[in-house]
Amino acid sequence: MSPLAGVAPMSVPPEAFLAAATILFVIGLVGALLKRNALSIFLSIELMMNAVNLLFLAYGRMRGDAASHVIVFFVIAIAAAEAAVGLAIFVAVFRVRRTIEVDRLDLLKW
Amino acid sequence: MSAEILLFALAAGLAIAGALAMVVQKTPVRSVLSLVVTFFAMAVLAVMLAAPFIAAIIVIVYAGAILVLFLFVIMLLNLNEEAREKDTRPAQRVLGLIAALALGGILLGATLRAGSPPGVTAGGGPRIPSPDEIPAVGRLLFSDYLFAFEAVAVLLLAAAVGALILAKRRVD
What we know:
The complex is a heterodimer of chains A (110) and B (172).
Chain A: H1 14-34, H2 38-63, H3 67-97
Chain B: H1 3-24, H2 28-48, H3 52-77, H4 90-114, H5 133-141, H6 146-167
Helix pairs in contact in B: 1-2, 2-3
């Protein structure tokens, strides 16, 4: 465990950060469940990942551990890779079907 | 009430308001712009958690690169508005909302009940940013996590090549 040196206690309770991250995660979940446009669903997933990043940072702060920052760094790098591939898939699907509404993309459903 | 609590309330409120606006908006462009507000507020929260490096990459990579990529794709596909067709499954939307809110309640209760992880002393709460954070992260990245770091580099290259091949127009 690599400690974060030279930092003083702060007045905001860590639970407040955990609560904010959980609320953001749930808003992202609601968006991912209720949106019909594949792009909007993807945006909601990005929000959920960022909420989890915030949770990582809050727990890392509580433990005084810089490893959480490394994990968040990896999550952001993988989110970037996922966004590039996901958006390319949407472009390819749009070329064929002329829509990215998830209700109309039911080729594999039946 | 201290300035820090005020700043936290402001940043967290802005992040949640931006996220709510993102879900409520019908136009994808407005959703993306609302999410930019949320990500900037989250960068403020990251600074408050003594993670200035993470705050910088949230602004640069998320708000600066990923969301701009989203905007490009929205413009490319000309998705001005979500198709407002008749809702074929109203019951599923209600059920989805109930399920998400129930899961949120359980998660919120569980995280708040769980509290601090083991081994954390009473004074181990969030602390003010320190310039010592970035060398600590860099040292970890190139020692303990070196293999993962190199693997992520390969993954990013593969993703870039894959995105190019996927989005390329077929030449017949």
